[in-house]
Amino acid sequence: MKRIPHTHTLQGFFNELTPEALRLFSDRLQMLVQNSSKHFSLNLPSEPRSQIEVSFTVSFREETVQSDSYAPSVLDEFRQEMQKNWSRATILVNNTQLTDSLMIRLLGSFKNEKLEVSFDSEAGYCTAVAHLANSRDTEQLLLGIWSDLGLSERPLKHSRNISESLETKLLCDSMHLCNVCREPGVIVHHIVSVEDAGKSEEENLIVLCPNHHNQAHQRSMLSRGLKPSHLKEYKKRHLAWVAGKGNAGTAAGNEVL
Questions:
Q1: Is residue 256, in this structure, part of any structural domain at all?
Q2: Domain at 225, CATH number
Q3: Statement to judge: residues 33 and 107 lie in one domain
Q4: How do residues 162-175 score in pLDDT, each as one tens digit?
């Protein structure tokens, strides 16, 4: 896969997305779309045609709402949905590539230029991936989004109904690493969800990175998300791996002595 030199990623935490924060965020996206020729490579000579599309998905406990249009006007709809009791949401501003004659929308972004922002309400986590025509422009966009949403580098709220002492134990037992991939930057996740009567007990909690946390929430019949049985096995193996590292360190120390 070709590496894209100036694709930038933002990852941050929030406690609450206030109406004012959502307004600032939406206004920034509106300006991005209105000034698309400044930020995106549009309709260049001898290149495929392209146009800016805006779309979103907002998931609630029992339903998922998707934009029925690709026009900038969906930003107002997105703000309205985000003022409800949502669980996960994604909004995409995409420089969509089109065929030169039939104008049929193609998969993928023209010159890989897009902005995609995802939110997880339970974990209070936001991630954004951006690639504009100019690298500095891309960085400035993400810095602006960080400011608009009032994001932080550290978690601002605990996972639901988990005591601070239990959360601390889970994180320390896991060495602050994802139990699946052992990457840092983690979230405490209910293996069996609260909606499915899962309890906030140590046996039902696992430490995951944002990527595997998203996979654990996938419910599509076509996707192979992380099921509770998978998570329990990963947690078992990870804790055994952590214990093994501790034993190895003790053994090495004894040898030195």
A1: no
A2: 1.10.30
A3: yes
A4: 888 999 999 999 99
Name the residue range of residue 56's domain: 8-149
Residue at a domain's end among 101, 123, 149: 149
Global pTM reads 0.68
Same domain, 112 and 174: no
Whether residue 100 is found in the same domain as residue 169: no
Is-contact 137 39, C-beta < 8 A? yes
In which residue are the tokens 């023209």 written?
110
Q: Do residues 132 and 25 share a domain?
A: yes
pLDDT, tens digit, 9 for 90 and up, residues 120-162: 987 889 999 999 999 999 999 999 999 999 999 887 766 667 8
Q: What is the DSSP string of the chain?
A: ----TT-EEEEEE-S---HHHHHHHHHHHHHHHHTHHHHS--S-TTS-EEEEEEEEEEE-SS-EEE-S--STTHHHHHHHHHTS--SEEEEEEEEEEE-TTT--EEEEEEEEEEEEEEEETTTTEEEEEEE-SSHHHHHHHHHHHHHHHT-BSS--SPPTT--HHHHHHHHHHTTT--TTT--SS-EEEESS-GGGT--SSGGGEEEE-HHHHHHHH---SSS----HHHHHHHHHHHHHHHHHHHHHHHHHHHHH-
Q: Tokens 């501790």 map to which residue? A: 246
* Count of structural domains within the chain: 2
- Quick count: other Cβ atoms within 10 Å of Cβ 11? 14
Quote the CA–CA distance of 86 and 98 in Å, as a whole number: 33
Q: Judge whether 250 lies within some domain.
A: no
What is the rounded CA–CA span in Å between residue 223 and residue 215?
Answer: 9
Q: Which two tokens stand for residue 38?
A: 């400044």
